[in-house]
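fyi for ur records
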Amino acid sequence: MPVNVALIGLGHMGRIHLGKLCSFEDVRVCGVVDVDDALAGEYAEKYTVPSFSRYSDALPDAACAVIATPTRLHYSIAKACLERGVHVFLEKPITVQPEEARELVDMAAARGLVLQVGHLERLNPALRQALPLVRRPRFIEARRIGPFTGRSTDVDVVLDLMIHDIDLVLSLVGEEVSDVTAHGVPFFTNLSDVASARVEFAGGCVANITASRVSTFRERSLAIYEEDRYLFVDLMQGKLASIVRKEGEEPHTTEYTATQMDPVRDELLEFVRAVGGNSAPSVSGADGLRALELANRIQDRIAGQGTGHR
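which gave:
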């Protein structure tokens, strides 16, 4: 039996999700939803699926929902889905406010429902290749920059771009954050379009995270420094370079390049399998909440353009 999925929101990411979902043999898209009736109708015709202008009309037949609306709508739509017993995949960030995210996490747990968040870099094959090599990071540098696209302007660059690397850093370090400093600058919008954060962890690791949507080129990279190992992950190209230093020996360098990359497809497959009870998703609602909490701390520091308290 195919899993019935409602796709809510036909913006840039929503359209990508729809194409992937319609390619799965064990999935039936039981409705596409968008407030723009013409847009919903266009994609309903393209993929031969029902269309709705109200998400509530798509939920009666849905076992699960993929929500790719503007961030400010995530909480209300996800809550309505969970209340009806519908499993939820939420594009990142999970919500605008941590209190909203915490309520969704608790609701999903109480009802035994899947709540997955779209931090798709966790499924990047180069990162997955690096993970078994990571032991105790001492310093991490993450950079995510690109040209202005006009998308996601309802949130600042911290929730738009930096949130991906916040999630990666938290998953790699696995310790409590002890201090945060950050700065941000608006350019195209009245929100921060460029931001840099320094995150210190209780065990001594420091992460510098830079995000910008004001650039002439694109970069998505993660550098991890350990006592005797350096890992550089090119998230855009799916490449990993590793340098290992051993006492009395020449440094040993290895490289890896992914043969194929489709993290959107992979995260949706994880969601469908989790709904079927076959596995747990790589990025849970709790993971999304942790990333949002740190993102909010960074936003607070940017608002004050200064240092936090230890």
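The longest helix spans residues 285-304. thats all i got for now
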